[in-house]
Hints:
Blueprint: E1 9-14, H1 22-32, E2 40-45, H2 47-50, H3 57-73, E3 82-85, H4 91-100, H5 105-109, H6 112-120, H7 127-142, E4 147-148, H8 155-172, E5 180-181, H9 217-226, H10 243-256, H11 260-267, H12 272-299, H13 301-330
Parallel strand pairs: 1-2, 2-3, 4-5
Helix pairs in contact: 3-12, 4-7, 4-13, 7-8, 9-12, 10-11, 10-12
This protein binds tryptophan.
Amino acid sequence: MSETVRKPVLYSAVQPSGTLTIGNYIGALRNFVKLEKDYDCLFCMADLHALTVRQEPAALRRRTAELAALYIACGLDPEKNIIYAQSHVPMHAELAWILNCFTYMGELSRMTQFKDKSAKHADNINAGLFTYPVLMAADILLYQTDVVPVGADQKQHLEICRDIAERFNSVYGDVFKIPEPYIAKSAAARIMALNDPGSKMSKSGEPDSFISMADTPDDVRRKLRRAVTDSDGEIRVDPENKPGVTNLITICAAMSGKTAEEVCAELQGKGYGALKDATTEAVVSVLSPIQAEQKRILADKQYINDVLKNGSERASALAFRTLRKVYKKVGLYQL
Ligand code: TRP
């Protein structure tokens, strides 16, 4: 990423709180590689966000490195993109404080993710969980971001980010760029949970509902064998009546580079066992080389540290410009 010639800025962040799923890969990760030509991209490990639920410290640290290595293993060039950890750029927390003062309790209480998470973690409804969207707004706004690739579950958070930015701008002038959702040119395939094809595949779902990027071939085979199908035995795309089979076809096609029609034609009349075998093979053929590369990268701790250090320095330089402007605008005394 060049800090002088400005392409539109694309900002993406993932919490290092679990392992990404093949749904994240198919819907987002694999497409990011093609974006570095047209966008200045930042890929953030949102480790501060992860603290809104209890984390095992050693696991959080390990997953942060693993996520960075996964990005690189999937083909993201750490020279062309900024790959960094949120906690390494203190301006995120600093801007979040300012933005907290421009965010209403009422709008935060309407966030569906807050309602869901506080139901799920009833023993730990902390203030961080409540102000989570404000930190996310700070992430995005610090970099004068043009576009944010978001799934349906984060749409509401991008909306509130825009509202906060507009509110701030209406008082102080054009300080923040108003970010737009990034809509992929080719409609990204929606990957559903294996055991419940009516809901989205998620890393926070039940263990057998998703295939993680770290799953072994045996894990993949076992989970796909158990995947929900239906009883009519026909291999065809019909999201309405055959969501489980359609999901398998979608995964098989995405991971093998074939179209759904090709997958159906090849497997016609062979039954769901054959569909599951073909899907297993397609998934493993994508995961194996990525896992091998990720492992190779992780073994070189110095390299990972260099990438993260370089990323945080470049991110900090950009973030500092925005934060300095904000501090000045709101009237904090300048030295
Ligand atoms: N909240 C996002 C998620 O759980 C992660 C995230 C943090 C994020 N900061 C962001 C996403 C900024 C996009 C932009 O998926």
